[in-house]
Design a protein that fits this description.
- It is a single chain.
- This protein is of the alpha+beta class.
- Helix content is 61%, strand content 14%.
- It is built from six helices and two strands; from the N terminus they run H-H-H-H-H-E-E-H.
- It has a two-stranded antiparallel sheet.
- The protein is flat and about 100 Å long.
C-alpha cells in the first residue's frame, strides 16, 4: 500500500510539472517551427518542390545522393516533438489511472471526467505514435528513389572462393591428404546513363511531401498538446479527487482503473 501511494503521489507531482512547464514547452516548439522555411503563401509546397529540384539538378546530377538539409531539420524537429508529446501523455495517463477510486455506487461524475480525458489522451498518443511510424519510412523511400537513377556510376564486387581436397593411401610416404583453395575477385563499374529529369522531380516530390507531412505533424502536435494542457488545467481537481478531497478509497493498492 505504501509503495502504490508513493507512486500515486509522484504521478501527481509529474502531472503538475508538465502543466507548469507546458507553456515553456510550447514556446520552444514555436521557435523551432519558425525556423523551418516554406510555410507562407498558398504555393509554399510548390516553392519547396522547385527549390528541391534545383538543388538536386546541380553539378550535373551528382548531388542527388546528398541529404536534403531542409527535410532533415523538419524530420528531427517533428519527431522529437512527437516523442516528447507521447512521453508526457503517458505520464498523464499514469496519473489518472492511479487516481481512479474503487468502484462504488453513486458519486461517479468525477470518474466520468477521468474516463473522458483518459480516452482523449489515449487517442492523442496513438495519433502521434502513428505519425512517428509513418515518418520513419522516409529514408528508406528516399534510398529506393535514388537507386533508380541510372546516371550514377555504380560499382559491384563479387568474390568466389573454391576449395579442393584430395587424399591417397598406401603410397611410398604413407597416407597423404592435400587441400588447396583459391579466391577470385571480380569488380564491375557502370559509368551510368543519361541524367533523367523526371527521376529528379520524383525525388523532389518525395522530399516535398515528407516536408509537408513533418510540418503538419509538428503543428498538429502543438495543437494537440495545448488542448491536453487546457483539459488538465480545467479538470485537475476532478482528476486528482474524483470523489472529492479527503476521499481515501483507492483500494488495497492494486489498479482500479475504470474502462
Amino acid at each position: 500500500m505504501t509503495s502504490i501511494k508513493a507512486h500515486r503521489e509522484k504521478s501527481l507531482a509529474d502531472a503538475k510539472a508538465i502543466l507548469e512547464s507546458g507553456l515553456t514547452t510550447l514556446d520552444a516548439l514555436s521557435v523551432t517551427l519558425s525556423t523551418l522555411p516554406y510555410q507562407t503563401g498558398g504555393d509554399w509546397l510548390s516553392q519547396a518542390e522547385a527549390a528541391f529540384v534545383a538543388a538536386l539538378s546541380g553539378n550535373d546530377g551528382a548531388d542527388v545522393e546528398k541529404p536534403n538539409d531542409v527535410v532533415d531539420a523538419a524530420y528531427k524537429a517533428a519527431r522529437d516533438a512527437l516523442c516528447l508529446g507521447c512521453e508526457h501523455v503517458r505520464i498523464l495517463e499514469r496519473f489518472i489511472g492511479l487516481h481512479c477510486p474503487k468502484m462504488e455506487d453513486g458519486n461517479n461524475f468525477g470518474v466520468t471526467v477521468q474516463m473522458t480525458i483518459a480516452k482523449h489522451l489515449k487517442e492523442q498518443r496513438e495519433s502521434w505514435e502513428k505519425s512517428l511510424t509513418e515518418t520513419s519510412k522516409y529514408y528508406s523511400s528516399r534510398a529506393d528513389a535514388i537507386d533508380k537513377f541510372t546516371h550514377i556510376p555504380k560499382t559491384s564486387k563479387s568474390e568466389t572462393k573454391s576449395t579442393s581436397k584430395s587424399s591417397s593411401t598406401g603410397g611410398k610416404d604413407g597416407d597423404e591428404n592435400k587441400e588447396s583453395s583459391s579466391v577470385s575477385t571480380e569488380e564491375k563499374t557502370s559509368n551510368g546513363g543519361t541524367f533523367n529529369v523526371h527521376r529528379v522531380k520524383a525525388l523532389a516530390a518525395l522530399d516535398a511531401q515528407m516536408y509537408v507531412d513533418l510540418v503538419a505533424a509538428l503543428k498538429g502536435m502543438m495543437d494537440g498538446y495545448v488542448i491536453v494542457l487546457d483539459n488538465l488545467e480545467k479538470n485537475l481537481d476532478k482528476l486528482e479527487n474524483p470523489r472529492g478531497r479527503g476521499y481515501g478509497g483507492y483500494g488495497s493498492g492494486g489498479s482500479s482503473m475504470v474502462y
